[in-house]
């Protein structure tokens, strides 16, 4: 398998994964609708930075530790589960505390809020051992023998990132079209509660899953 064939084949596989609704989609939509486009792109960049990190770690052989050590996998899984549950509870608590005036006022994302959004996206990705296991299982199948593994791993992860950026752009664009209606106080609180429940659900599912 040459480099071009590997990239195209991998693009087809991760394209389906990218289009499947999940935690990333929920976080991007929620951030775009409630905090604005800049914060939403910060979340996206955090997620994709995590994807590149997993690609590099897998190609370098470091993340194989997750496959070889049940303890390492469980530590990362529980850390991710606790983080997701904490983040979801924060969203639910914020929806309780938001009054009509606060919810009706559009957020003005600051540098700090954009950094927080980036960190949220990055940690959500890096603390999900399923992403690492996916890369461990998939990348070796698309590695040509005559290309350095770290370079090829970054190229394949770059394909994943590119597709993720395109899909995220569509999500953020859609959110921009309906943002005026969704900024109504009752809708905003409902969206925060729904996203919080989804995030808590992902955290609980991660805690219950085994490698």
TrEMBL record:
GO molecular function per UniProt: amino acid transmembrane transporter activity
The record's listing under InterPro entries reads: LeuE-type
Say which domain of life the source belongs to. Answer: Bacteria
**What subcellular locations does the record give?**
Cell membrane
Keyword Cell membrane: yes or no?
Answer: yes
Alphabetic keyword roster: Cell membrane, Membrane, Transmembrane, Transmembrane helix
Q: Which GO terms describe its cellular component?
A: plasma membrane
Transmembrane segments in this chain: where? Answer: 6-29, 41-69, 122-142, 154-178
> What is its membrane topology?
Multi-pass membrane protein
Query: Where is this protein primarily located?
Result: membrane
What is the protein's name according to its record? Threonine/homoserine/homoserine lactone efflux protein
Q: What is the species of this protein?
A: Streptosporangium becharense
Taxonomic path: Bacteria, Bacillati, Actinomycetota, Actinomycetes, Streptosporangiales
């Amino acid at each position: 398998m040459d480099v071009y064939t590997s990239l195209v084949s991998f693009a087809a596989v991760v394209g389906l994964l990218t289009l499947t609704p999940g935690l990333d989609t929920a976080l991007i939509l929620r951030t775009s609708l409630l905090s604005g486009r800049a914060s939403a792109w910060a979340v996206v960049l955090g997620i994709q930075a995590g994807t590149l990190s997993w690609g590099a770690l897998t190609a370098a052989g470091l993340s194989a530790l997750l496959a070889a050590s049940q303890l390492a996998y469980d530590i990362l899984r529980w850390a991710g589960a606790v983080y997701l549950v904490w983040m979801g509870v924060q969203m639910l608590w914020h929806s309780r505390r938001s009054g009509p005036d606060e919810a009706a006022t559009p957020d003005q994302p600051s540098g700090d809020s954009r950094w927080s959004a980036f960190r949220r996206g990055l940690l959500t990705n890096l603390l999900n051992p399923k992403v690492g296991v996916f890369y461990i299982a998939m990348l070796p199948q698309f590695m040509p023998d005559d290309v350095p593994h770290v370079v090829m791993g970054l190229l394949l992860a770059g394909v994943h990132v590119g597709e993720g950026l395109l899909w995220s752009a569509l999500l953020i664009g859609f959110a921009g079209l309906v943002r005026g209606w969704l900024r109504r106080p009752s809708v905003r609180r409902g969206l925060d509660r729904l996203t919080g429940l989804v995030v808590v659900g992902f955290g609980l599912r991660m805690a219950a899953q085994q490698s």
